[in-house]
Amino acid sequence: MTEKPEKYLTIKENGTHELVIKKSRFICSMARTNTVEEAEIFVKKITNLYKDATHNTYAYTIGFDNTCVKACDNGEPSGTAGIPELKALQLMNLNNITAVVTRYFGGIKLGAGGLIRAYSNSVTQAAENIGVIKCILQKKVSFAIQYKHLDKILYFLRQNHISIFKQEYTTDINLTVLLDSSDIDKFEQDINNILAKHVEFSIGQDLYNEILLTDFDYHNQ
Q1: Model-level pTM?
Q2: Longest dimension (CA), the chain
Q3: Residue 139 and residue 216: Cα distance in Å, rounded?
Q4: Contact yes or no for 90/218 (Cβ under 8 A)
Q5: Which stretches in the chain have pLDDT values below 50?
Q6: Which of 41, 162, 163, 165 is 20 to 30 Å from the Cα of 25, by its Cα?
Q7: Cβ partners under 8 Å of residue 95, min gap 6
């Protein structure tokens, strides 16, 4: 079984985005897909949805470090559609993504270079329009505080960009936050210092914290 990476990039959610280039419509449909089977099912779904289109080209990258990739030109000149789409996904460092770019021909030929740019830009702009997230593998850390301490704890969490996974209100307030393993000890010390008392912490399972990126400098993520 492949070890989970500490972080990776993917899209926020499934979605579509359309470009019109010299009267041709390019509709990029994107989905988060974790297996080849999921990718192939998505390709078939979109192809059936746009079965009257001139072309339904696609590319997907499954697994981390491009474990399994595939590209299809679906009738466009070889290398002008699927491969540019795949390269766009790879240049953005996106993982577990399937992109299907549907083309309705508008009557004006684009040439090989024009097609490559059109299909590549369709994928890039679709991802940016949908939103890109960084998934960071973190641990759940749970603890309870009294209601009177809530404001100061929330302020501390905001100042330190710590994500709250869950809040439960009972006789006390039970908070679960997401932290890197290396930050847990310091976090516990900080909370104890803020409250000037000993707090009991429970360390839970690992899960991916999804953080929406506000810029598109993917190479530095």
Answers
A1: 0.84
A2: 73
A3: 26
A4: no
A5: 1
A6: 41
A7: 8, 9, 10, 61, 63, 64
Going by C-alpha positions, the residue among 186, 173, 182, 188 that lies closest to residue 141 is: 188
Do residues 119 and 111 make contact, with C-beta atoms less than 8 angstroms apart? no
The pLDDT tens digits of the residues spanning 6-63 come to 899 999 999 999 999 999 999 999 999 999 999 999 999 999 999 999 999 999 999 9
Pairwise CA distance, residues 141 & 162, whole Å: 11
What would the 3-class secondary structure string for the chain be?
Answer: CCCCCCEEEEECCCEEEEEEECCEEEEEEEEECCCHHHHHHHHHHHHHHCCCCCEEEEEEEECCCCCEEEEECCCCCCCCCHHHHHHHHHHCCECCEEEEEEEECCCCCCHHHHHHHHHHHHHHHHHHHHCEEEEEEEEEEEEEECHHHHHHHHHHHHHCCCEEEEEEECCCEEEEEEECHHHHHHHHHHHHHHHCCCCCEEEEEEEEEEEECCCCCHHHC
**Nearest Cα residue to 132 out of 221, 6, 5, 2:** 221
Q: Two tokens at 186?
A: 């310091």
